[in-house]
Specification:
Blueprint: E1 3-7, H1 12-23, E2 28-32, H2 42-45, E3 53-55, E4 61-63, H3 65-75, H4 86-112, H5 120-143, H6 154-163, H7 166-171, H8 188-199, H9 201-204, H10 215-219
Helix pairs in contact: 1-3, 1-6, 4-5, 4-6
The structure holds glutathione.
Length: 220
Amino acid sequence: MGIRLINALSSPYGRKVAVALKEKAIPFDVTYDVPWGKDTCVAQYSPLEQLPILILDDGTTVYDSSFILEWLEVRYPDRPLISSNAEQALTTRFVKLLGERVMEAIHAIVFELQRPEPSQPFVERQSRKVRRGIAEIEATLERRQPAKGIDIDTGDIAVGSMLLLIPFLIEHGFVAELEVLNWRPRHPKLAVYADTLAARASFQETKPALMEVDLKSVVA
Ligand SMILES: N[C@@H](CCC(=O)N[C@@H](CS)C(=O)NCC(=O)O)C(=O)O
């Protein structure tokens, strides 16, 4: 049977894992789940009750997208997504961390805006993280040295999954058109970088799609 990925159609965290599996040419099956729905299976496989989750042939589970990406590098070292050069690997992990933390700040905004009376100071605080985090990503990418034999790394995958989710969230009304999310005019070079990632088969094949979930009831 091989690897099974528990994913959600719109999950940027799950997308990271699916992109990494595709970039490494590792075959996998996907089961889509709605982690907040009453029929979710996530609690059965992860104490954190979150997806993405990998389920292996022997029933072992691997979860949290950040850890899964590290796990894949150890178990499937072919087609590396992290350089064997320690300095370059540190930069990759730093970019990955920024992509992940900014994604979390965006999600915090999405959920806060579902509340009957969203806290403006909270939204502003998260918005600062998004604004400064994206600027830091661009600055870090500018100074990074190309790694031999690696044309996409786990940092790119985390950042791409985050940046490329933003238009989906706006289009489907999950966030108002907040100024902070209109990052392209502020970072034209990052926009070119995001478009290059978006054009890769791994990203094309994992575009976010709507799933039935009532986020208002999640925060109620
Ligand atoms: N840090 C986790 C975050 C995953 C996450 O937030 N997943 C969402 C779906 S996009 C989820 O399962 N949420 C349910 C919950 O947190 O209870 C990761 O990177 O895997």
